[in-house]
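Q: Got a minute? One more chain.
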Amino acid sequence: SLSTPHALIRVQSNGQLTVQDLMSETGTYIKQADAESYNECTTPQNVKHGSKIKFGANEFIVILIPSSLIG
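A: Always. Here it is, folded:
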């Protein structure tokens, strides 16, 4: 299950996307496309294309689309 609020996803001023857990009960974890294991997001973690993010037991794959391709 997810907490309310559970995690913060933020676009930094330099355009970098980050995710951080907000002391949820089930945690927030990230696995970069080139990594073998998940890292807990107790501090802001960079999110990249292909990253996998777990909010509790729910897993999402990040797909970043350049703004030039969005109409």
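A: The longest strand covers residues 7-11.
Q: Perfect, thanks.
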